[in-house]
Design goal:
The chain is mainly α. It has a domain of about 120 residues. The strands form two sheets. A two-stranded antiparallel sheet has the order 1-2. Helix 1 packs across helix 5, helix 3 packs across helix 6 and helix 4 packs across helix 5. The chain is elongated, with a radius of gyration of 23 Å.
């Protein structure tokens, strides 16, 4: 009897976890889809602003670059943890190594015009496509999870900086620049600072957590 109860509880827990996983994935994908709608971005930025206003008051509007640094640290840590526990890094390394070996063999067979070997490699290629598709699925899943935190924060920063055009920051080799001025194309200086800090912090975290052999 106890064993049946235990099995039922385990199945219930597994179903709950699976349903929660589907719900989070659907929410993350929905955020990515609706993020292209300007009205949605505005509304999302205003809503997140209610949560971020106390932090703005604490740090100070003139130190918006510090807020961006905090945002970058939060998103980098969150993204790294999601990637660590949702991606099979051993499978990814094996697939990448197999692909490198396959490409080398394929080039050698082409140069030597070994049609028999080329036919064998073509059959092998179809098998490897399955591993590559699985790898792609594993890479997409974390993106949906990461968007749940990163997109709302990014939309808030965009909404906030649009209403505070006087914010400036001193950049190395460039000098003091307004954060809303463009670097190139649609990329503004605040976005450049955000991605530079996010990339640097992410590399440190990945190294510390040994994610993907970083």
């Amino acid at each position: 009897m106890k064993k049946l109860v235990w099995i039922a509880l385990a199945q219930s827990s597994s179903n709950l976890k699976r349903n929660l996983d589907y719900l989070l994935l659907a929410f993350g994908i929905s955020l990515m889809v609706f993020a292209v709608i300007s009205d949605f971005r505005q509304s999302l930025g205003e809503f997140v602003g209610l949560l971020m206003n106390p932090l703005v008051a604490l740090v100070g509007q003139e130190n918006f670059h510090i807020l961006l640094f905090i945002m970058a640290a939060i998103t980098a840590l969150y993204a790294s943890l999601i990637q660590k526990y949702t991606i099979d890094w051993d499978l990814m390394r094996r697939t990448q190594e197999r692909m490198k070996a396959f490409q080398k063999e394929f080039r050698e067979a082409q140069l030597s015009q070994n049609n028999y070997k080329l036919k064998q490699l073509e059959e092998q290629r179809s098998e490897m496509m399955g591993d590559q598709m699985e790898m792609s699925k594993q890479q997409f899943k974390p993106m949906a999870y990461i968007s749940i935190i990163s997109l709302p924060l990014f939309m808030w920063a965009y909404y906030y900086i649009s209403g505070h055009t006087g914010a400036t920051m001193v950049f190395p080799f460039i000098g003091e620049m307004e954060l809303v001025k463009t670097v190139i194309g649609p990329i503004q200086f605040w976005i450049l600072w955000y991605f530079i800090t996010s990339l640097a912090i992410s590399q440190l975290i990945r190294k510390a957590l040994n994610i993907g052999g970083a």
